[in-house]
Structures are given as C-alpha cells and as structure tokens.
Amino acid sequence: MKVSTRGRYAIRVMLDLAEHSNGECIPLMDIAKRQDISEKYLEAIVSLLVKAGLLTATRGKKGGYRLTRSPEEYTLKDILQITEGAFAPVSCLETSPNTCERATTCKTLKVWTDFQDLVNDYFAGITLASLLEDNSCADNYSI
Questions:
Q1: CATH assignment of the domain containing 22
Q2: What angle do CA 126, 9, 118 make, to 5 degrees?
C-alpha cells in the first residue's frame, strides 16, 4: 500500500484546520500558504472531504472550511479511506465479500487479510488530536 500525495495532503489540511480552529471558517488560501501546497490542488482535496462530511464549506467574504467534529473524532483511517479508497494490498480484497474464485483454496489469502487488518487498525488508532499532541510532527506536518 502506498499513500498518495492526495492522501498525505488531505491529512495536512485536516491537521491545519484542527490546529487553527477558532469556530470560524478558515480560507483555503490560508491553509495553502501555511502548508505550502497549491490552492488549486487543495480545492480538489477539500471537495472530497466536504462531500464525505468531514468538512463544511462556506462561500463568500468570510467563507472557508471547518471541521464538522472535534479533532479527537477524526482518525487517519477516516481521511485516507476518502482519498485512497480501500486499504487492500491485493485486488481480491478490494470488494466485500471476496469474489475471487480462488479464495477458498488460496494459501496466501490469510496473509493479505491480516496485513489489511493491521493497516486498518493502525490508521484507526491515530486521531488528528493525537498528531497535534505529538510535537515532533505538529509543527510542520511532515506527512
């Protein structure tokens, strides 16, 4: 599994919003400047996050974005599943139930299933709040 730039940037956007949250919307331009990411590229990412209900968007002079929940309620798994899709290490695990014709006889299926569960559990255990508390990462979001 390889996390794309879009996935990494989505986490950075969410962290930025969590860190700078003051109850008001935060303009995308401010996030783009702080994170040194193209505003145009971020538009596509926040669109996905809004559509998934992780962010709310407000248009106009005081417009921008804000989290829909507290930082403790967002896991990296939530964010990455929106940008990356399933954490399937092999194609037969991309759908549930597994429709592979070899699933019942596959000697490696358990390895791939266990790996997928490990990745899911790992990212489910990391919240935006926990990343912000980790001083080694919070200052520059080296994700």
A1: 1.10.10.10
A2: 35
